TrEMBL record:
Belongs to the universal ribosomal protein uL6 family. This protein binds to the 23S rRNA, and is important in its secondary structure. It is located near the subunit interface in the base of the L7/L12 stalk, and near the tRNA binding site of the peptidyltransferase center. It comes from Roseobacter insulae. NCBIfam families: L6_bact. Part of the 50S ribosomal subunit. GO terms for molecular function: rRNA binding; structural constituent of ribosome. PROSITE patterns: RIBOSOMAL_L6_1. One of its GO terms (cellular component) is cytosolic large ribosomal subunit. This is Large ribosomal subunit protein uL6. Keywords: Ribonucleoprotein, Ribosomal protein, RNA-binding, rRNA-binding. It holds the Pfam family Ribosomal_L6. The keyword NAD does not apply.
C-alpha cells in the first residue's frame, strides 16, 4: 500500500475544493488551481479533507495513487503559501536587475539577456546578485528558475554562474604546470 496515498490532504481554513468527475479544483487566498486525475484513482472531498483511493489493485493504480495525492497536496500548498525558488549569481560583473516585467541579466556574454516571466509567475531581483521566482504552480516556478539558470550554469573551476540558493557545486582543481 502507498504510504503517501493513504494520508488524506487537509484543507486549511479559507481553502475550498470541489470535485467534478476526475478533476479537482482548489480555491484559496492566492488563486485557483485544478488537477485532472487519471481513471485509476477516485477523489472525494468530505469535511475539509480530500481523500484519494485507488480503483483496483493494478500496478498503475497504485502508482497513480501516491502521485495524485502529492499533486492535490501541491495544489493546496500553492493556493495557501505559494512556491518560491531563490537563485544566486556569482561572478565578476554578473548581475541581474528588473526593468518593468523583464529580468535583465548581465552574464559576461556579448549581449544582455532579457527574460520575460510567463503569466502566473513573478520574478524579482532584490539584490544585483539574487533572483527570486514565486508563484502558485510548483512546476511552472521550477521551470522558470531552471530556464534562468540555464543561461549560465555554475562551472566547477571558479564557481561562476547562476545557482540555486544553497546548491553545492563540486569544485575541481585546475591544470598544474
Amino acid at each position: 500500500m502507498s504510504r503517501i496515498g493513504k494520508k488524506p490532504v487537509d484543507l486549511p481554513s479559507g481553502v475550498s475544493a470541489s470535485v467534478s468527475g476526475q478533476t479537482i479544483e482548489v480555491k484559496g487566498p492566492k488563486g485557483t488551481r485544478s488537477f485532472k486525475a487519471t481513471d485509476d484513482v477516485s477523489l472525494k472531498v468530505e469535511d475539509n479533507v480530500v481523500s484519494i483511493e485507488p480503483r483496483g489493485k493494478s500496478k498503475r493504480a497504485r502508482q497513480q495513487w501516491g502521485m495524485s495525492r502529492t499533486m492535490v497536496a501541491n495544489l493546496v500548498t500553492g493556493v495557501t503559501e505559494g512556491f518560491k525558488k531563490e537563485l544566486e549569481i556569482q561572478g565578476v560583473g554578473y548581475r541581474a536587475q528588473m526593468q518593468g516585467n523583464t529580468l535583465r541579466l548581465n552574464l559576461g556574454l556579448s549581449h544582455d539577456v532579457d527574460y520575460t516571466a510567463p503569466e502566473g509567475v513573478t520574478v524579482t531581483a532584490p539584490k544585483q546578485t539574487e533572483v527570486v521566482v514565486e508563484g502558485i504552480d510548483e512546476q511552472l516556478v521550477g521551470q522558470v528558475a531552471a530556464n534562468i539558470r540555464a543561461w549560465r550554469k555554475p562551472e566547477p573551476y571558479k564557481g561562476k554562474g547562476i545557482r540555486y540558493k544553497g546548491e553545492f557545486i563540486f569544485r575541481k582543481e585546475g591544470k598544474k604546470k
